[in-house]
Amino acid sequence: MAPPKILLCGDVLGRLNQLFKRVQSVNKSAGPFDALLCVGQFFPDSPENLQEFTDFVEGRSQIPLPTYFIGDYGVAAVKVLVAASKDSANQGFKLDGFKICNNLFWLKGSGNFNLHGLSVAYLSGRRSSDGLQFGKYSQDDVDALRALAEEPGIVDLFLTNEWPTGVTNRAATSDMPTGISDSLSSDSTVSELVAEIKPRYHIAGSKGVFYAREPYSNIDAVHVTRFLGLAPVGNKDKQKFLHAISPTPASTMSASEISMKSPNTTLSPYTSVDQAAHPKVATKRSGDSDSDSQYWRYDVSKKRQKYGGGDGDKLCFKFIISGSCPRGEQCNFRHDTEAREQCLRGVCLDFIIKGKCEKGPECSYKHSLQSEGESYSHRRPRSENASANRSKECWFCLSSPSVESHLIVSIGENYYCALPKGPLVQDHVLIVPVEHSPNTISLLQEYEIELAKFQNSLKMYYKSQGKDAVFFEWVSKRGTHANLQSVPIPSSRAAAVQDIFNLAAEKLGFKFLVMKSNNNSDGRKSLRTEFDRNISFFYVELPGGIILSHVVEDNETFPAQFGREVLAGLLNIAEKADWRNCALSKEEEMKIVENFKKRFEEFDPVK
């Protein structure tokens, strides 16, 4: 299957006639193209272009291909976007865009969606402190993208209106058009996000010039990022405003393909290149660069005195959230264990650092510092208060409003089974602990009895269809809510599955530890004795009682979807390696769940 062809465009400024005339010309000579993605201001910058713009929006002129925009500001933006927001067809969670008219979609706020196999993330609007209804992003939009950065998978395209601060501050960028300041139309928040998300392509507008930076390597990732800054449509200097790309989706690429680097690859512009030449100090030095910004979020120079540490001091965001930082002692930002402890006790991070929370009553976290006694005095059974607060937004907690309850097929006392969103194959099942736990290995021994019942039931169910079960779990020390995945494979392929996993491991540069057991309980008991909650590891339970496991070092890049990717290769369905390529409508999911329940009923251990 050929990679999708995508057109990228800078600030449109309402000049749709000129844009689509150029698009049709390019489409004729090099197309057909699948979509057009626009960054920078999309709406007119003056009333003179309004009639031309309105002709397209109201259907008198036709838009030739699906077009997506994030620059939701300019003349008539409020009128058009309010109407789109009220349209019943645009109600609900529309990460793939609010429909404005035929072939025109507004990417609102922030999000991530699948476009012809490509993972596309975006941040709509600009940084702004005024009271505009549209055209600015919120802290919630930023936080949603931070959460995306923790999810498995690689983002192919990241769209922002403004450039990241620091992207041109390298000798390698000497081809940058003269007279352009890095601070002009640049946003440090965008720098933080792109350093965390690590997209393969980052596209931005708003700066008035075309600029294609050399690819740069990422911290803690094997792939490179390419930055493209696009000029406005109809600019007087005739700089490039339309650019074509045809990237292969990362979800279908092999590890060797995704890690390829061209000879002109540079260091990340968000990493201080001279850091190694200077000793670490506790507070920010005058020579420190904004390039370290992906590791901190809040300026703590004005925070509560309880945590005060010096003028200009900054906390390491990575450390507070995960308890570790890949830079270790070389990190320029403070690893505050007490602040992290407050975070674990369910205290709002904004409150810890700033002494106040902008969300106010809508925030689900605590707005007072918690002593150790307070943090446990009102805890729920088998769950700390902090876990209870975090579980409100968890996709897998049964008490969470975010849980996809229509996917649940069986509920026990300590575990439940659900069908996944975007299943790899029919009867792909998730075994999920009821308790908000980051893995299934560290739970109480008594829970293993029920887990074994679910696993044995699925084995018998698969066997009745001429298939064998493969169970795998990615145990991340930064994990939130565990799920043990169960995937059926044809019994005729069972003999090959260990070789396939070993081959995949070899390509990533490691060898599995192999354990052989007579039953699930013994194998998992061995895993429990090896378990250390301060490490990340992957394990897979194969037919025949073989368990393969691998401890993942802090400096090692390991794909979070490794198990799924390997099985997709075994089953010759590489296009399904990314679950987002297999996403179904809620109606389709409900139908699949109902059919599964009927087939599984006689095997269900809860019945």
Automatic annotation (TrEMBL):
UniProt entry tagged with the keyword Repeat: no
UniProt cross-references to PROSITE patterns, sorted A to Z: ZF_C3H1
Keywords linked to the UniProt accession: Metal-binding, Zinc, Zinc-finger
Region (Disordered): 253-294
Sequence ranges of Polar residues compositional bias: 253-274
Annotated C3H1-type domain residues: 310-338, 347-370
Zinc finger (C3H1-type): 310-338, 347-370
Pfam family, one: CwfJ_C_1
Annotated Gene Ontology cellular component terms: post-mRNA release spliceosomal complex
GO BP terms in the entry: mRNA splicing, via spliceosome
SMART domains: ZnF_C3H1 (SM00356)
Entry annotated with the keyword Transmembrane: no
SUPFAM superfamilies listed in its UniProt record: CCCH zinc finger (SSF90229), HIT-like (SSF54197)
GO terms, molecular function: RNA lariat debranching enzyme activator activity; zinc ion binding
Protein name: C3H1-type domain-containing protein
Organism the protein comes from: Acer negundo
